[in-house]
Write a structure and sequence with these properties.
about 280 residues; alpha/beta; Rossmann fold; 6-stranded parallel beta sheet; 8 helices
């Protein structure tokens, strides 16, 4: 079997260039590359880092053009998907294909008011636009089960909000059917600590929080591991993966598709419907 090609993409959703989050994203990719060298007999890893601080990302206007696509309805092998092009033209037209080509995704967003910041929200709304059909590819084939790891940073101290931020990130990325794979909540680093001098007079950056780098290692390795396992699964299962593992949770796209997969076989259905359900309340004492 030929070596697998694995691509991991990291996105910095900070509003500042060269920020703590950008540093953490690049550190995470170095962890991925180290893992790649350890499994180089079976896979070649490629990494890419994108800063979103200076990218044009516009908010979704929640229009009625659903499902939305970048270029309007296209013929798909399962049938015609009727839709109109997204009216918003911004960086999502370039970012979408980058995510589509990725086997794993690392997303960094600073903690703001106890949750993720505004630029992450803009980015994830942009990813939702055009996801049904992206340059001729059915969206479930790149979003569905895409391994995602999340990271954040904040000033140290009570009420930093990093755990709620990471939980919110995981919930939000799951909504587009990606697969959060971070260890625990995800990775976080503090700018240690912002209200008193840093040892040795260093700058207030996440580099001072070296004891917590283990969370970056855990999250990054898991993204790399799951990306490899999923890619291998796709290679082994081939058409079975596309036919039975992808697109089974949405309405049929072709005229010959049925809802049969959502029904038990006749014998099992009859058996389940014949099982009694006790309605009598239990007697206590």
């Amino acid at each position: 079997m030929e070596k697998l090609k694995i691509k991991i993409l990291a996105l910095s959703c900070s509003n500042r260039l060269n920020s703590d989050i950008a540093w953490m994203c690049q550190y995470a990719l170095k962890v991925v590359e180290k893992f790649g060298r350890r499994v180089s007999d079976v896979a070649d890893y490629e990494t890419k880092f994108i800063e979103l601080a200076d990218k044009d990302l516009k908010p979704c206007i929640n229009c009625n053009r659903r499902p939305c696509t970048l270029g309007g309805g296209r013929n798909w092998e399962g049938g015609l998907l009727p839709c109109q092009p997204c009216p918003i033209k911004d960086y999502h037209q370039e970012l979408g294909p980058e995510i589509q080509k990725a086997d794993g995704l690392i997303i960094g967003a600073p903690t703001s008011l106890g949750t993720y910041n505004s630029r992450f929200r803009l980015m994830w709304e942009a990813i939702s636009r055009g996801r049904e059909m992206l340059f001729g590819e059915h969206w479930l084939q790149h979003n569905n089960r895409l391994p995602v790891g999340v990271l954040t940073c904040a000033d140290d101290g009570p009420g930093s909000g990093v755990e709620t931020c990471l939980n919110d990130l995981n919930i939000t990325v799951r909504f587009l059917e990606t697969m959060p794979v971070s260890m625990v909540h995800g990775a976080w680093l503090f700018r240690n600590p912002s209200w008193r001098p840093v040892p040795e007079g260093g700058p207030y950056t996440v580099k001072n929080n070296r004891d917590s780098l283990r969370w970056l290692f855990s999250m990054s390795r898991r993204v790399a591991e799951y990306a490899l396992m999923l890619k291998l699964t796709k290679e082994v299962l081939g058409d079975v993966f596309k036919r039975e593992f992808m697109g089974r949770y949405h309405e049929p796209w072709g005229a010959d598709e049925t809802w049969a997969w959502r029904r038990l076989d006749k014998e099992d259905e009859e058996y389940m419907m014949s099982l009694p359900i006790e309605m009598k309340l239990p007697e206590w004492g």
